[in-house]
Amino acid sequence: MLIFKGIAIVAILLATYIAGAFSAKIAVLKSRDRIFSLGNALAGGIFLGTGMLHMLPDAHDGIRIITGSHSLPWVALFASCGFLLILFIQRVLMYEEKAIDDSIKNKVGRKFSPHVLMISLSVHSLIAGIALGTEETLRKALVLLIAILVYKLSAVFTLEVNLHRSGLHKIPKFKKATSFFGFITPLGIIAGLALTAILNVREEQLVAIAFDSLTAGSFLYIALSDILEEEFMRPKDRLFKFALVTFGFATMAIITLQV
């Protein structure tokens, strides 16, 4: 597992670099919004499948093994916390940024928006990284790694498009934003490994269950509210998007059942 997690860190960094280079080229195209929208739909299905079919069931099984009971609502509690945390960052902070943008000058809002987006993406990436770092089995870690890699592709593209739309992609410190974002999940993995090293077996299992649940809640929020709700409000390509969502969900279902 230690070797696998080391490989996962390298894979995530490499995927972030490739996604950043690819996204920077796509972000200047006129068809960028449609490409992003279709890719987003596929990512939504993968996040939904990962949260519902992998993270939550594994957390429920873990709490049952440790406590011998199904009655404790810890999994639902932590999943709800993960959902509410991303909801607060995305909707409360974003709302404040929007109000600033409307009341002052566009330039102020543009400078603030990428920071808020970076915080939101980084918090989720850190939680997912810790969850991967505390995973005990290769099957669970592999499924979660696939979801994280897909999330990185989607998140990096979102960040690049946002930077180009705001005109901040030419500023040196923002050019490094993608590189900084790429290191968040590996730092989470290292933090998860550190936790497993200092905790006893029972405490380690409880921490893994907690972060599995938090990740599941954040995945569900991003899939349902941040991606699918937004994408299906647009009339274009709805059937194609639904097919991509279904394909992403089915892919994770097959991986979860077979791996």
User: How far is the first residue's CA from the last residue's CA?
Assistant: 15 Å
Helix fraction bin: over 70%
Count of spatially separate domains = 1
Order of helices and strands: HHHHHHHHHH
Quote the average pLDDT.
77
- Number of helical elements: 10
Shape: globular
In terms of DSSP E residues, the strand content is: under 5%
Number of strands: 0
Name the features.
259 residues, mainly alpha
How would you describe this protein?
By secondary structure, the protein is mainly alpha-helical. The protein has one domain (2-19, 39-258). 87% of the residues lie in helices and 0% in strands. It is built from 10 helices and no strands. It has helices spanning 2-26, 32-67, 74-103, 106-134, 138-166, 172-175, 177-182, 184-198, 201-231, 238-258. Helix 3 (74-103) runs antiparallel to helix 4.
Write the layout of secondary structure elements.
Elements: H1 2-26, H2 32-67, H3 74-103, H4 106-134, H5 138-166, H6 172-175, H7 177-182, H8 184-198, H9 201-231, H10 238-258
Outline:
With 259 residues, the protein is an all-alpha fold. It contains ten helices and no strands.
